[in-house]
Amino acid sequence: MGFRFRALSLLLLQVLLLFLLETAKAEDFYNISNVGSMKQERTCNLFEGKWVFDPSLPLYESSSCPFIDPEFNCQKYGRPDRSYLKYTWKPDFCDLPRFDGLELLRRWRGKKIMFVGDSLSLNMWQSLTCMIQASAPKAKISIVRRESLSTVIFQDYGVSLFLHRTPYLVDVVKGRIGRVLKLDSIEGGSVWKGMDVLIFNSWHWWTHTGRTQPWDYVQVGNTVKKDMDRLEAFYQGLTTWARWVEMNVDPTKTRVIFQGISPTHYEGKDWNQPRKSCNGESVPLSGSLYPAGTPPAAEIVKRVLSRMRKPVFLLDITTLSQLRKDAHPSTYSGEHTGTDCSHWCLPGLPDTWNKLLYASFTM
């Protein structure tokens, strides 16, 4: 009887330890960076917190930065208020390090950093170049802008910041039947090789239909369809991307970051103001929770990343960005007609994304 009781107790203890280990792994994935040497207390989650007013912001002016496209240059195109420039992200149990562009250039000396994705990657890439230039105004800079691949080089440090525009990450090819979105193919990933840092983003274009949809058919293996559920297509495409990372990235040489899902603010009902959009909004939502909750695409990103063997740091910007209904170009964009509630003004919210990126390399 005593032996049987001890054996049962040992079995229950093993089950409890296994449960605690799996719980710790889950917390590690979402709360602790897998990039660089960043180590935090378990209670410090950089992505949980609130927005607070900071009169010292912004870190730069749009008029002094040559990298900003008209679609993000809200001050130039008539936005009358500046309060949206004055908010900083404050994590609940720790502080973000102050952004130091010179320190980042020193850490990245001789390295190649590539942003890969859609116009939200463009938003973040231009923000980072402006932030670094503000820290190193005398640095020699060369700029090459092309449709799919652009580069800013800080020549004194040999730091190259690339942008590869590929909104689905997977391939869109022209065939006999038309333009085909191939959910199981990433031939375009060849340009990602040899980078020291890769920062990926996708989702914005997966919801496009009609004239703005840049493909006619979707294909997986030998199966071709006219259309399919967009969340399922995103999941399959992101799984193909994850497989590419597993097969092509050496984590001792290349750090991989996923930018996270950037939200839109077209529907005021999402923040309990059903008659509004982002137009005319001038202050963030208070608190730390977004009434509409987490978008399904963000859950898909977490699911795919949690199954990967190679380390990928999730720059989990979704909730903190959902609170910034005030930070979009709205009607103050130089290239968009109507109201733009999907991209972000520069200076603005993407500067915080880059502060969090900086923290992942320095904390």
UniProtKB/TrEMBL annotation:
Q: How does it sit in the membrane?
A: Single-pass membrane protein
What keywords is this UniProt entry annotated with? Membrane, Signal, Signal-anchor, Transmembrane, Transmembrane helix
The Trichome birefringence-like N-terminal domain extends over: 43-95
Boundaries of every Trichome birefringence-like C-terminal domain copy = 96-359
- Signal peptide span: 1-26
Where it sits in the cell: the answer is: Membrane
- Family named by the database record: Belongs to the PC-esterase family. TBL subfamily.
What's the name of the protein? Trichome birefringence-like N-terminal domain-containing protein
